[in-house]
Structure formats: structure tokens, C-alpha cells
């Protein structure tokens, strides 16, 4: 998670992409970083829109991910519907 040229937190070493994101969000909040308008990046595609939904709820507005899932469109549609850049 990043904002304003600063890495706020990262979620690493998790076997679940959701757990990794929730870990990163929790770390950022622990240090009282404001996630509104932050960006998130992933080195893997999102096979379901769950991560973009969680990110949106946390205030994240931009997503960088490589794509490649046969279900990419679900995440793209969620982002489009909620004003998130992907």
C-alpha cells in the first residue's frame, strides 16, 4: 500500500491474497496512516473481486495488478463501478 511517494505497509508471506491485504491494511492503520486515496499493488492477479472490495472499503482508490485471471472482468467491473483505477 502506498500514498504520496511513500510505502505505507505491505502484506507478505501469506498463502492467501486476502490475508496479505488485511495484514497490510492493519499495519497501515496501526501506524495511523490514512488509506483514503492510497494505491495497492499485487504481484498476482485477482481471481475474485474480494481484494478490490476490501481495498475499496479501506479507502484505497487505485489498484495495480498483472491480470491474467479468467475472471478479471469481475474485479475490473467492481473497480469501474466504485471509481477505482485499475
Describe the structure.
By secondary structure, the protein is of the alpha+beta class. The chain has a single domain (2-81), classed as AICAR transformylase, duplication domain (Cytidine Deaminase, domain 2, 3-Layer(aba) Sandwich). It has 3 helices and 4 strands. Helix 1 packs parallel to helix 2 (50-58). The two termini are 14 Å apart.
Output the structural class. Answer: alpha+beta
Percent range of helical residues: 25-40%
Order of helices and strands: EEHEHEH
Mean pLDDT: 97
Number of separate domains: 1
CATH class label:
Alpha Beta
From the N-terminal CA to the C-terminal CA, the straight-line distance is 14 Å
Question: What does the largest sheet look like?
Answer: 2 strands, antiparallel
Q: How many strand units?
A: 4
Cα-atom radius of gyration: 12 Å
For this structure, the CATH topology is Cytidine Deaminase, domain 2
What CATH architecture would you give? Answer: 3-Layer(aba) Sandwich
Which percent range describes the beta-strand content? 5-15%
Strand arrangement in the largest pleated sheet: 1-2
Shape: globular
Number of distinct helices = 3
The stretches of 5 or more residues where confidence is low (pLDDT under 50) are none
Name the CATH homologous superfamily: AICAR transformylase, duplication domain
Amino acid at each position: 500500500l502506498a500514498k504520496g511517494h511513500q510505502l505505507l505497509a505491505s502484506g507478505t508471506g501469506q498463502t492467501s491474497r486476502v490475508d496479505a491485504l488485511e495484514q497490510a491494511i492493519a499495519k497501515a492503520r496501526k501506524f495511523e496512516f490514512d488509506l483514503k486515496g492510497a494505491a495497492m499493488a499485487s504481484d498476482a492477479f485477482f481471481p475474485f473481486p474480494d481484494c478490490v472490495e476490501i481495498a475499496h472499503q479501506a479507502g484505497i482508490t487505485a489498484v495495480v495488478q498483472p491480470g491474467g485471471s479468467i475472471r478479471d472482468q469481475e474485479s475490473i467491473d467492481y473497480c469501474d463501478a466504485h471509481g477505482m483505477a485499475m
